[in-house]
Amino acid sequence: MLKFGLFQLLLVALISSSHALSKDEFPPEFLFGASTSAYQVEGAANEDGRKPSIWDTFAHNGNGNRYEGNGDVACDQYHKYKEDVQLMANMGLDVYRFSISWSRLIPDGRGQVNSKGLQYYNNLINELISHGIQPHVTLYHWDLPQTLDDKYGGWVSRRIVKDFTAYADVCFREFGDRVKYWTTVNEANACALGGYEQGSLPPQRCSPSFKNNCSRGNSSTEPYLAAHHMLLAHASAFRLYEKKYKDMQHGFIGFNLITYGLLPLSNTSEDISATKRAQEFYIGWFLNPFTFGDYPDIMKKNAGWRLPSFTQKDSNLVKGSIDFVGINFYYTHYVKNSPGSLGMEDASFSTDMAAELLSFPLNDTYTEIPITTWSLQAVLDLLENSYGNIPIFIHENGQKTPQNSSLEDWPRVKYLHAYVGSMLDALRSGSHVKGYFVWSLLDSFELLSGYESTFGLYHVDMNDPSLRRQPKLSAQWYSNFLNGRSLDPMVTTEIEIKPMLSHTRLLHHAA
Ligand code: BGC
Predict the structure, then answer these.
(1) How do the domains of the chain map onto residue ranges?
(2) What span, in angstroms and rounded, lies between the C-alpha atoms of 76 and 60?
(3) Dihedral of the CA atoms 503, 506, 507, 511 (nearest 10)?
(4) What pTM value is reported for the model?
């Protein structure tokens, strides 16, 4: 049980009285956890044989001039993993989702395995298991070994497929006796777009028109190529697992995407079809090949030759190569038709989509992420109805607060309460969702803001040399929930941001 002041406990209890939410209402096999990723929490970036990844390079080059900091030390989970596992156990987590740093395990991306890296992940996995916590492992969370980017451009080359498969092979062989859930790629869509179209994220490749200080890249072709190779690399690792490990290890291999609630800006047929198009571009881009063996027709039509085509062999490799889909969900966007962008000289994914994403609500002045559980429900419906009712994990969901803000993180408590409640609604309406992970266990080195804003259930004092962890109110809330004490902020319903009724109908129509 977490230690928290009487005042905070009273508050949690007070808000626990109106609309009860209890873990007992969930099926016993439904998993609750928290997520992190290697570069964001491990630190020890130059220790024990680890070599840089493209994320190290991006951070050391100024994070696209948007914020400061890097993951050299981060939360130092590399040295503090025992303490962190204890925090998870105190909270009552069923699962911990973390990622393996490819360049810690295989420093040059291919070839020699680093025994210290192997030892670290074995230690972490064993520590989790000895505390009754299941490890869910992501193989790739934005941190390609720099050597592979230098050698052949990383994901833009098909050579990545072989190297990724060999890396996955090492992981399955070494850890697969204890790890049953593997996710190959985190947010493949965001990786391809941020890294290779807009150049705002590692490895910062884009055309000059994108103005993100890219020294190389081609926004017209590379996001499509990178995504294509992610699909092939995933499928190749899946097939390897199927052939070599599945009978022995009985595990599952999934793929992860960022998803947004998408809502037509108006009820015109143009905005409604733009919303459908945006869904095809963001989600169908990957789930169509997994379900049907090919890209959505609208993508083929609008991107033309710039979208790689599947040979029959590749199509067979990819189709069906997925046991579950992991989705990360934070935001809802309005979608506005943008037909004028089609056929532009500097064509790219964004112009091919011919739709513009606007903040929801419009002119958003919220510092926090607006709570829109109804739109997560629409995403779940979409996955269920359009992609064969595939099992789903909510791999990331969480609220952002400024670094060093109060430990009484009410916005996060409200946010988590609303979304955990919405999991129950989803299950009751037949959704195939299998588990829910809070982003994040700890305040860490954030992808979009460094150390300026945080998502942690635990505050990490970055000014304290020992990087002291302290539970926030949200950790207390999660712990209460996980330990079977019922709770609920009555405020939840008040703070949920809903569109006008007609829009809600449209969303379902569009989905
Ligand atoms: C990423 C995380 C990131 C989080 C919060 C997700 O897009 O997978 O690495 O820190 O969002 O911004």
Answers:
(1) 6-510
(2) 18
(3) 180
(4) 0.94
